[in-house]
Amino acid sequence: MKTKTINLFGLISAACPVLTFAQSPTNPPNVIVIMADDIGYGDFSCNGEKTIHTPNVDKLAGDGIRFTNAHAVAATSTPSRYSFLTGQYAWRRNDTGIAAGNAGMIIRPEQYTVGKLFQSCGYATAVIGKWHLGLGDTTGSQNWNGHIIPGPSDIGFDYSFIMAATADRVPCVWVENQRIVNLDPNDSIEVSYETPFPGEPLGSTHPELLTVQRPSPNHGHDQAIVNGISRIGYMKGGKSALWQDENIGDSITLHAISYLEQHRDTPFFLYLATNDIHVPRVPHPRFEGKSGMGPRGDAILQFDWTVGQVLETLDRLGIRDNTLIILTSDNGPVVDDGYQDRAVELLGQHRPWGDFRGGKYSSFEAGTRVPFIVNWPGRVKKGVSDALVSQVDFLASMGSLLGKDLPDHLKNDSRNELGAWLGTCKKGRDYVILQAGSLSVYDGTWKYIAPNNGGPLNVLTNTETGNNPQPQLYNLKRDVGEKKNVAAKHPDRVQRLQQILKECTQSRGGGCVISR
Ligand code: NG6
Ligand code: CA
């Protein structure tokens, strides 16, 4: 990428100018990343579907840049978030798959992270919402009734208010600064992913206790029952600390508002990771029935409300203009992810995946092609960008914005794409690498999916996985729905993309040089 460092106030006509705060006389910008969970490209009205109305997200997009070709690194949460926060591809390690609720912390304290980057530049840092990257030293060893270490504070977050994993996994409690909130010392909490606790009813044994949502048949989620919903994993005790599912969106939003209020005078980085719209989808009753699509659509509206609350707060505090907001999702959409919430029946004409094939868990585009909006009033050129971007570049791009040189070993997976992210550069990456059942390489036109012997359909979620024992090649410029595998017709292109993948995977993070 051609780069030229310029003052933030002087947009000049270099092919790809890169703005850096380091040269700017302004205050360092606050940075907020709003990371949705399982929201698909088509789930926001600004991305073209006429079936849903998300005014706050649309306003953010309308006043900023809406990207059409942006990617999460992986088609599920843990590897996607790992890559986003560390700037390293999760597939370089074999322990970054979907984490259990009692997983040990996957990002190790010695690793560099975006939180550490911001801290090193004098920022206050926080994570609020879904974590799903493990806590404590090793799986199952957490001291749930005390100070849980290591945790977010060990990898660059000064403040944390998180759910350990997902709403469908125990423990169903809030963890603030690595201590469970509202825990009664006389009712200690126990968590296991192996053995049920004697006397504790389970979804599988006591379905009559499931008063809110039941798991879909054959779809797991039938262990501990919390608030009339059965989950993955077993837990016991901690009754006073249990979250209320219908208040999760409010809790996350109110903690974010309060964090903004407390930090109006300090530069801050807020990683705001919503639970919406992961299962079980239990939005607050005030959203009930508002989308006409049942809890899945209502949860999207709740997400949109959260976005509106953040914007209103920034306006009220007078810090909106100096805040860079990035809104995206950790992976693509899924309609039935395990609970009987009528999402399939009520979907109607809505296409959460937009024009793309597949969804969450899939190597097809909808697995990782996610909504991506960058908004920074007066600083980004409003519009739509088709630049190829990847969340793995957040680290290096923010490093560039802050004028901070990254450690050498981090410079390969995460690249400085600040020009593309801020809209001064039309072209983004030369290629992105995507992770689902297989690794794929996509260069903006051609996409190669490595062979895989897994089944073609995730029968639980009814998602096409993109798995195929044969190499797959798609021309996404002509065939955005990945219908026609043209690998046999273009062996040279297959070989070129295979070569990129080979060099990248063999480099152990030490270099992904394109062979042309
Ligand atoms: C799957 C769960 C699914 C969801 C997913 C993680 C079953 C059958 N399915 O294993 O419901 O929790 O993991 O989603 O248990 S993610 O968005 O956090 O990656
Ligand atoms: Ca997710």
Walk me through this protein's architecture.
There is one protein chain. This protein has 516 residues and is α/β, with parallel strands linked by helices. It folds into three domains: 30-184 and 243-422, Alkaline Phosphatase, subunit A (3-Layer(aba) Sandwich), CATH 3.40.720.10; 190-236, no CATH class; 432-506, Arylsulfatase, C-terminal domain. The protein is built from eight helices and 24 strands. The protein has helices spanning 55-62, 77-86, 114-120, 248-262, 294-317, 394-401, 418-421, 491-506, and strands at 5-6, 18-19, 30-36, 65-67, 70-71, 124-130, 159-163, 174-176, 179-180, 190-192, 225-226, 229-230, 234-236, 268-273, 323-329, 372-375, 383-385, 389-390, 432-435, 439-442, 446-449, 457-458, 463-464, 472-475. The protein starts with a strand and ends in a 10-residue tail after the last helix. Residues 1-14 and 510-516 have low confidence and may be disordered.
List keywords for this structure.
Alkaline Phosphatase, subunit A, Arylsulfatase, C-terminal domain, 3 domains, ten-stranded mixed β-sheet, four-stranded antiparallel β-sheet, globular, binds 2-acetamido-2-deoxy-6-O-sulfo-beta-D-galactopyranose, binds calcium ion
